[in-house]
Fold each of these.
Amino acid sequence: MKSEISTRRFTQLFSATPRGARLARLLAVHQLGEWGWPACCEVGESVALVVAELATNAVTHGCVKGRGFRLSLSVEPSGTLRIEVADPRGDRRPLPRRIATPGDEGGRGLLLVDALAARWGSEPWSPSGKVVWAEIALPCLTGGVPASSSQSSIRTVTAPEAAR
């Protein structure tokens, strides 16, 4: 008897703009809802915050003129959702556990990622970029995984064109 293998992956390229970061968050939450975890549940809210932070960091710190960033989501066999944001600036890796002073306007986002994710980190992305990733534990759904979860969504359209 063959076992059924389901692939739950979502990949999308976005422009390195605030609009691209916002659309990455919206599409991630939408895709998670398609897989059975609605935006209003704890997982949906955690994913929205983590994607928003990683995408904003890619736009703010990983931007190279004319190049965007890539968001990938995948449900792993270990029962976690892996979020990956790849950008072209491999020389600017995230600094974990930076403590922001009360007067700082930024510097707290990765603390949120650290609090919400089971694990997170970064690694080089060929040829010169980086991938910042986070894994969020997924609760089991009653009756197993939803029927729509076996669908793979891989897209290569840039975000601003998709939104028009």
Amino acid sequence: MQRFQRNIHKVIYFLPNVISTVVIGLIWSFIYDGDYGILNGILSSVGLDVKGFYWLGETQTALGAVMAPMIWTGVGFYVIILMNAMTSIPPSMYEAAILDGASHAKRLTAITLPLIASVMRVSLIFLILNAIKTFELIFVLTNGGPEGATDVIGLYMYTTAFGSPTSGRATNSMFGYSSAIGMFICVILVVVNIIVEKSGANDNIEY
């Protein structure tokens, strides 16, 4: 029963990762809609006057509004990785620690974290990679607006090469500039990968 519940939790956590990014963007656009959005409806039901407020249309709230679906779609991937890493730790190690009188915090810092350190490094690399290459969800939700409040380097590279539907700020002569941005992103990711790997090169633990 416990294993079944754990598998159900994994499915729930990972579900946003199998949904199309465009579909997720449309769902959250409806949630944030100023006139018919679910969020405004909930806030209005508790006495807050937010009718007609467009969360994606204000520079003060657009970035936070975009971050919510990004976290929702991304967190499940890392939850699954870390859950699998923790379940691979032999229970005998925790049993021995309990017999020695180790507290929950001590077991966490002395057993769990050291044994999943390599998995955490890989997760960190994936997290940085996904943060830098973020494009699709922002393109669907705001296209970088309002007034560039949600513009990111991936979207900037795209609009530099192909132009923006609203500004048309690119010409064919800017494909080279866009390629240079792509190469710069690649260099950043390689450097970050090297730094993360070097920082944990000596903490591989076997059991």
